[in-house]
Design goal:
The protein is an alpha+beta fold. It contains 7 helices and 8 strands. The structure holds zinc ion.
């Protein structure tokens, strides 16, 4: 299949150096999954791609399919997302979002939903660097992977008054726990309220929240949940490969 030309659109997740003047670009594409491609000559000052292939760039591409690495033949900007992401707040949120996409996206395995979510979160961040942009995105990624935490009743016994009795969250069990069943780490009522907003169709409300201890709590839990999921998936793949 080497040499076949194809078109796609994607978001640049990461780039790294290759040799003297080339760069490898990792792109979450709409139709071809995560693609690793060589952009020749990008590190020369008069490169035809230059700034178009920086992380968070949304680009329309013409690529040659290679055995391991594809080759970028053309790259055009779809929309100028990266300049909007130039403030430090926005840039660090954008980087946190695309790092997670990089970890979840599988090479050459089409995942149009992940591509759409990536574009969506970068637009949201570019518009407003809300405290819960990245945590809400992580939870949505997990939901897209089939993991939706149980938030309204204890994950063990099914009991518990949502407003008072649910006091902990256990990542292994995938939800909240009451006082008598608790094995997970503490979660406060305000944080649980924000989680219910994110999963219950009140995302706009969650994103309107100012930074607070509760938003930090939801953020820390989202990061741990994502890491937990990725680690478990890596282990599952390793196990699969051994057999
Ligand atoms: Zn219980």
């Amino acid at each position: 299949m080497a040499g076949e030309l194809y078109r796609d659109v994607g978001v640049v997740l990461r780039t790294y150096k290759l040799g003297e003047s080339d760069r490898i670009v990792v792109i979450m594409t709409a139709e071809n999954g995560k693609v690793r491609a060589v952009a020749k000559g990008v590190r020369k000052t008069r490169s035809k791609f230059g700034a178009r292939l920086e992380p968070m760039s949304h680009v329309r591409l013409l690529l040659y399919r290679g055995r391991e690495l594809d080759i970028v033949s053309q790259a055009e900007t779809v929309e100028p997302l990266s300049p909007m992401l130039s403030s430090l707040d926005r840039a660090s949120q954008g980087m946190a979002a695309i790092e997670a996409v990089d970890q979840l996206g599988l090479e050459r395995e089409p995942n149009p939903q992940l591509y759409r979510m990536t574009v969506g979160v970068l637009r949201t961040i570019a518009e407003r660097p809300a405290a819960l942009n990245v945590p809400a995105f992580y939870w949505k990624l997990l939901r897209a992977e089939g993991l939706e935490p149980q938030l309204d009743a204890c994950v063990r016994c099914g009991e518990g008054e949502p407003e008072t009795d649910l006091v902990a969250f256990d990542l292994n069990e995938g939800g909240v726990q009451c006082r008598s069943c608790r094995t997970g780490s503490s979660i406060t009522q305000p944080a649980l309220g924000l989680m219910r907003d994110i999963f219950g169709g009140r995302l706009a409300h969650a994103l309107s929240m100012q930074e607070s201890p509760a938003t930090h709590e939801v953020g820390a839990l989202a990061t741990r949940a994502l890491e937990h999921h990725i680690e478990r998936r890596l282990k599952a793949v390793a196990m699969f490969e051994r057999h």
